[in-house]
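Exercise: predict the structure of this protein bound to fe (ii) ion.
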Amino acid sequence: MAIATGILAVNAAFLRDIKDDNRRLHDLLDETNRLFASTNSVEGKTRRVVNVLVELRDQLALHFALEEAYGYFEDALESTPSLTERAEKLRSQHRELFVELCGMVDQAEQGLYHENPKANCVPLEERFQRFLGDLRQHEAREVDMIMEALSNDVGVGD
Ligand SMILES: [Fe+2]
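Solution:
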């Protein structure tokens, strides 16, 4: 298990590029949102919800992996304490958000295979709305951090 001992900083230019390039993630979030709001039959919707949530989970895993591989870096030579603190908090949110999305996939699959989908549909929709709000807030805070890093010219690794 890796133990972080250095200063965590952000590669603001890479992090911004990763966000700008990930159109598929935003399309999937919009698609999932529309699907929950649609008036299709509950059974048909539940099957499609499982499929779109699985695809969303895979896309989010890729997005976070890219951010962590290229957008954040350990052992920076310098960073402002406030930036390091924000970077640590935001990076740690990746796991929380991903675990929540995995939980929604499990819940959707239970509705599809073992339980009455109608009983599951509304709570899952509320759970998704909360997740969507949390993810958007996370993304907005990372954009704020990118702007601060760029304006400070601290933590930019290229
Ligand atoms: Fe992120």
